[in-house]
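Researcher: Go.
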Amino acid sequence: MPLPLPRVLIDCDPGLDDVVAIAVASAHTSVVGITAVAGNAPLHHTERNARIACDLFGLDTVAVHSGAERPLVAPPRDATHVHGKTGLDGPPQREPSRPPDSRDAIEFLVESIRSEEGLWLIPTGPLTNVALAIRAARDLPGRLAGISFMGGSTSHGNVTATAEYNVWADPEAAAAVLAHGHETLIRMCGLNLTHQVRADPAFVGRLLTSSSEAAQFSGALIHHYRNYHAILVGDPTAGCPLHDPCAVLAVTHPDLFAFERRHVAVECSGSHTRGMTVVDGRGYEDPKARNVSVAMAIDADAALTLISAALTA
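Model: Structure:
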């Protein structure tokens, strides 16, 4: 008898790879709700894009709630230079079939987590909504099955030499969330992990030639991102990393991953390191200080097969 699908809340800032993450969640989880946060694009675009993703992947009954339009402390700084003005550059623009369900993502998160113990929370953008929800209701971490987030890195950054975008965009929120790593399981899928999962031209080509409208749309998104990434690294054949679906797979297929329990802190003040996830790799520090299960390796071929199947289903 198959195991029941994990029940999840997705907090996201779509963004092309958030759309891919929603596709994977639609195939392998029971999505309880989606909350949007400003990040890859301003909030009025990200919550709209979340509704478009629901239309694409058959999540007709899943509520979408609009959340924080700016970080806790830092000024708002989007990534539209990567994802485009609307956050979903590449395919022809679509109109969502319905309006957002509410403008209060924080209340929705609090009510959902308090009404059903054992949900997974999967943030794929800045952690502002999550930090605000925990600030409003301190009991939330202990009620979750866990938090699986895309963000940070054990090695390099992508906005700066040391900082990955989701954490850099709101480091105070990330620090506040990781402080609860002893109350709930926190899994971190950082750049060191997500750069192992790359969509090459052949992967994109299969999506673009699929008979599925959702696959074609997703293929155009990834094609746009792959072109940007190829210019960035100076290699026209380079595959682009698929960051956000890794955070979903860490919940649905944890056997594909190698995790290491580490102490992770967020640098909030360094002039060169603000937004850095400082991952303690010494191995001889107090084990009680280890607050995060850091994803170090993944079976990339298996991950890409699952992602492709979700996009073409």
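Model: DSSP finds 13 helices and eleven strands in the chain.
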